[in-house]
Write a sequence for this structure.
């Protein structure tokens, strides 16, 4: 069973702070990693899909990096705003016999205080 | 236009009943998924169809039967509902099944068994 862990479980920051959180996965089982943003009462929305070691992706104030050799990805938010408050989900596809299947972490709940 | 739409949004029913949840996507995607959000808030894959063919079938009781009449629709039928089936069920779609593509989620169906 693939284990995808996200830390911290929750995070409170002030408006304007920059923040980051982690997604960890077994480095021996990797094909692709997804990041999703999930606002309360809405559906998860895709942020990034990453496949290559050393990949860096950016969307506005949000960026992500990927290290497949050591089995982690970081998500960064620069200058957090209250509208960034959401649960950030990471999901990994392990390839092999799990090809096509995403395993999700439990998410990091971010609250940005004005 | 909603890209991935599920109906109904809420479903309250008695134990032992049979119910269906419908999902439609208008994105022209080849692959569709059903996820269950468990009591710990994890999203767990249940089924995936690619071009109307079943490609992922996780360890789900056979009371759950997905049906894909065409590649834009993936319905979930549940027989003999049990208390443990209470959860939020999410439908999703992606362009193809390789997991290099982001998944687009519906808003979820909250199923409550009395």
């Amino acid at each position: 069973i693939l284990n995808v862990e996200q830390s911290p479980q929750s995070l409170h920051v002030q408006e304007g702070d920059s923040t980051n959180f982690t997604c960890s996965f077994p480095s021996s089982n990797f094909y692709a990693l997804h990041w999703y943003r999930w606002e309360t009462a809405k559906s998860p929305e895709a942020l990034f899909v990453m496949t290559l070691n050393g990949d860096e992706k950016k969307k506005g104030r949000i960026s992500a990096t990927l290290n497949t050799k050591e089995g982690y990805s970081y998500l960064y938010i620069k200058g957090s705003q209250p509208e960034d408050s959401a649960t950030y989900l990471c999901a990994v596809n392990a390839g092999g016999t799990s090809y096509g299947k995403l395993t999700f972490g439990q998410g990091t709940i971010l609250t940005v205080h004005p | 236009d909603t890209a991935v739409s599920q109906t109904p949004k809420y479903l309250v029913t008695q134990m032992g009943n049979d119910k269906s949840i419908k999902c439609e996507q208008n994105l022209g995607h080849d692959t569709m998924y059903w996820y269950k959000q468990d009591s710990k808030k994890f999203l767990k894959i249940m089924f995936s169809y690619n071009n109307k063919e079943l490609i992922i079938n996780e360890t789900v009781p056979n009371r759950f039967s997905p049906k894909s009449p065409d590649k834009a629709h993936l319905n979930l039928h549940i027989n003999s509902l049990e208390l443990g089936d209470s959860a939020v069920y999410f439908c999703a779609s992606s362009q193809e099944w390789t997991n290099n593509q982001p998944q687009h989620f519906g808003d979820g169906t909250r199923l409550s068994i009395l």
Remarks:
- Chain B is about 0% helix and 55% strand.
